[in-house]
Amino acid sequence: xxxxxxxxxxxxxxxxxxxxxxxxxxxxxxxxxxxxxxxxxxxxxxxxxxxxxxxxxxxxxxxxxxxxxxxxxxxxxxxxxxxxxxxxxxxxxxxxxxxxxxxxxxxxxxxxxxxxxxxxxxxxxxxxxxxxxxxxxxxxxxxxxxxxxxxxxxxxxxxxxxxxxx
Amino acid sequence: xxxxxxxxxxxxxxxxxxxxxxxxxxxxxxxxxxxxxxxxxxxxxxxxxxxxxxxxxxxxxxxxxxxxxxxxxxxxxxxxxxxxxxxxxxxxxxxxxxxxxxxxxxxxxxxxxxxxxxxxxxxxxxxxxxxxxxxxxxxxxxxxxxxxxxxxxxxxxxxxxxxxxxxxxxxxxxxxxxxxxxxxxxxxxxxxxxxxxxxxxxxxxxxxxxxxxxxxxxxxxxxxxxxxxxxxxxxxxxxxxxxxxxxxxxxxxxxxxxxxxxxxxxxxxxxxxxxxxxxxxxxxxxxxxxxxxxxxxxxxxxxxxxxxxxxxxxxxxxxxxxxxxxxxxxxxxxxxxxxxxx
Lengths: 166, 342
Hints:
Distance between the termini of chain A: 87 Å
Strand order of the largest sheet of chain A: 2-3-5
Mean pLDDT of chain A: 91
CATH class of the domain at 63-158 in chain A: Alpha Beta
Oligomer: heterodimer
CATH topology of the largest domain in chain B: Alpha-Beta Plaits
Strand content of chain B: 15-25%
Helix content of chain A: 10-25%
Low-confidence stretches of chain A: none
CATH architecture of the largest domain in chain B: 2-Layer Sandwich
Mean pLDDT of chain B: 86
Number of helices of chain A: 5
Number of strands of chain B: 14
Radius of gyration of chain B: 24 Å
Strand content of chain A: 5-15%
Order of helices and strands of chain A: HHEHEEHEEH
CATH topology of the domain at 63-158 in chain A: Alpha-Beta Plaits
Distance between the termini of chain B: 66 Å
Shape of chain A: elongated
Strand order of the largest sheet of chain B: 2-1-5-3-4
Structural class of chain A: alpha+beta
Number of helices of chain B: 8
């Protein structure tokens, strides 16, 4: 068949000489690439010590928020658990006692609030469902662990630190 | 015999609701005529309760437009009428969801009902099976236009099993009618008038009657709630099961609400309009909370659109993506048999 273009490159194959048969030029080329990377910017980070900056819509570990007076916002309405496609959230509600008025915002609160981080798919639907703006997925990457039971995060790990009053 | 049959037929009156004609007994209300047709054209009702005599006419959510009064007098009625209190006439034509005027007026009624109603659905135990919540979802605005303080009351214990949140009350009077009808001595009613009216038992006298718990079931909102179920769980995480027992005082036919192994709540069985089928006694409602007390029948049928049935639908209804083709089904069956043979 007639060639369709004039840009035809004719390859010439020659028998390899002794140095080429010993891979010397190829070794040199490879080493040159390796050494050139010593002077380039690092592609990796030292993870647990250094954290990469996440995008603003990054969804990480959950946190249960407090309001401006330091009261817990969550009222255990169960909408996060209802919306959760992985069924990772469970909670037990309790009634606020009069002396606990500074701890919880509404008359009902979550006595137990658990998220199974192995089930969670970090879709953010709980955040969207929450009518009280109590849960946000604004934390870091969930750390690894050895036991399954350690991935069930309770209120001790989820609730935000209380505000320090000056 | 045949003559009699004809007589009863001729006595029935014809009424057309949203273009659907139905023949009903004279003296039937428009609402009940619509319920005989069923479906979307049934006006919602917050205060009317078919099992309670004299109920209805309070909330105005069931308003409809009568575009033709009757065969004899075809003039339309001048205003929208409450369908639970207006009886049908022969040849009457009624518009409910086909009339934009009705829809607009109804959303106005919903706004009025929500004026003093607190937005504490996340806390309220009625959420998920609340008539006002459904109504607000269908007709209400996203925001409130009311700028003043909502009226507030302290929680009141009516007896040790029932709790009254007067904040949430929409003054439908259903509980008053229940007390009137089911008990022989009424111990609770409405105090004050107009904007100040409130349900009360007069200095919190305990409602002391075997059937007093039924006020919880008839309440369309979360104003009267079961104290034994208070904050135990959300309605949609519990599984309803129909059950019965031999009860000396009532029919004993109830719905048990399970969470895992435990019965969290016992209520009367409700029909599609949220009205109880038979009233149950307080022993069944509050004291029998063990599976051993009951004979379990079957899971309660809950509408697929209800939040209670979310994540456990009882019927599989696949989306109508592919048109049903009998020829294709037949061919598939033949192919399946062929592979089974090999």
